[in-house]
Amino acid sequence: MGETGETLLSLSGVHTHIGQYHILHGVDLEVPRGQLTMLLGRNGAGKTTTMRTIMGLWQARQGAVRFAGEDIARLATPDIARRGIAYVPENMGIFGTLTVEENMVLAARRSGLNAERLDWIYSLFPAMRKFWRWPAGQLSGGQKQMLAISRAIIEPAELLLVDEPTKGLAPTIIDALAEAIMALKQTGVTILMVEQNFALARRVGDTVAVMDDGKIIHTGTMAELGADTALQGRLLGLDIGGGTA
């Protein structure tokens, strides 16, 4: 893990267009090494576009995306992944007709399945061992999400991008996923996560950036935002009565 406050990923003045639509309007974002940064905002604020821009799936028309000091904004997605960035998209990106094992083999194409790393993943997500031979399409929503994250981390990554991991999941599954995410964070991996579930964000996040209309409008600690209901309402339109996760 790097020094406290060291920036692993930064976006500076990033503008992204999708077709004729100008989605990101000068995004400035810093992701500290070894921490979990929450990227929050209303639907349509530009969060997924930010994640896809970092991965090179959509290319920034203007601005810099720096990872470990290198501007990666003009690199192809496979080259970005090879530098140590893994991505779990909102649609999970798993192959439903393949088994869990086959999904994992495909994800570990560079180094192959490593028994020690698999055991570590099983410790995070015991369902992966239990359903190893099952077609991924037969898994529950929560199990599919666990498989998607397992695929992203089967090869060592410095930075993990996760887009709305709890969408559509039951509260008990969300709780298990939160425990796994916190355990993953303890290994030193840096995480940037988009999430609509504010209780989960408050529980697992260290730092937070809030987006609106394609720009970052607030940055700070997750603890500060979690404790300030007036600020939550102003930034996110939340009215959660100060409840705890």
UniProtKB/TrEMBL annotation:
Origin superkingdom: Bacteria
Pfam families (alphabetical): ABC_tran
Alphabetic keyword roster: Amino-acid transport, ATP-binding, Nucleotide-binding, Transport
PANTHER family, per the entry: ABC TRANSPORTER ATP-BINDING PROTEIN, HIGH-AFFINITY BRANCHED-CHAIN AMINO ACID TRANSPORT ATP-BINDING PROTEIN LIVF
Residue ranges of every copy of the ABC transporter domain listed in the record: 9-238
Gene Ontology molecular-function annotations: ATP binding; ATP hydrolysis activity; branched-chain amino acid transmembrane transporter activity
GO biological process, one term: L-amino acid transport
InterPro entries: AAA+_ATPase, ABC_transporter-like_ATP-bd, ABC_transporter-like_CS, BCAA_Transport_ATP-bd_LivF, P-loop_NTPase
UniProt feature coiled coil, ranges: none
Protein name: ABC transporter ATP-binding protein
Keyword ATP-binding in annotation: yes
Family: Belongs to the ABC transporter superfamily.
